[in-house]
Amino acid sequence: MRPILSVARRELSTYFGSPIAYVLLAVYLVLSGYFFYSDVAFFVTFGAQYLPTALWRYVFLDFRLVTLLVLPLVTMRLFAEERKLGTIELLWTLPVRDFQLVLGKFLAAWAFFVVLVALAVVPFAVLYVFHPFALGPPAAAVLGLVLLGTAFIACGLAASTLTENQVVAGMVTYGVLVFFWFMTWNEAVGSEQWIRVLLLLSLFDHYLPFATGTIALVDVAYFAFFIGFFLYAALRSLQSRTWRGVV
Q1: N or C: which end of the chain has fewer CB within 10 A?
Q2: Enclosing domain of residue 144
Q3: The whole model's pTM is what?
Q4: Of residues 49 and 216, which shows the higher confidence score?
Q5: Which residues contact 23 (CB under 8 A, 6 or more apart)?
């Protein structure tokens, strides 16, 4: 556990030692704050009577978009920058196993994301002071957002192991995540059975119940599998250096 935490601390110090983290933090908070204000204003103006049940769906679907925009920019540098600077070889000489390196960097990106979410939900407390609401639905939605963001991080981490170009890593991550978003949108091209299969694979269809305040075991299991799959892919990508003769 200690090597994992050491890698995570090193990564976090790199994040906050440059303006990148603060720029991404500002972008995430400005966009999430704007969407939260807009959604609350909409419901107050046109449908305040539905605010306790319907507001969270719109807020967290908007937060989904903000998370999709920002997190690939967080993960694209995790291994790509190490490769570009040549420090990846130094990491391989340290007494740290590949899985500890993967988990350490994953943990650092995840901790940064949790900070983003924690700050983004601060306006919820302000709203609660003026308009108390049931805490269950937004709590379920926050859990879903954390699971969704964790899945994004795992995907971005795997993409970052494939190249030394951060832009390429980021675009690969965007491509994969957008595919998992839109894969069920063109329902006219497939049979009903095919659409059911796509719904089972769709990342965002599994997120939707959380946004409406519902926690289902099947959705939690899906996110766990998605995260585990891409972490395993990242590990195998790093280990491929042994048969490629890199080390």
Answers
A1: N
A2: 2-244
A3: 0.88
A4: 216
A5: none
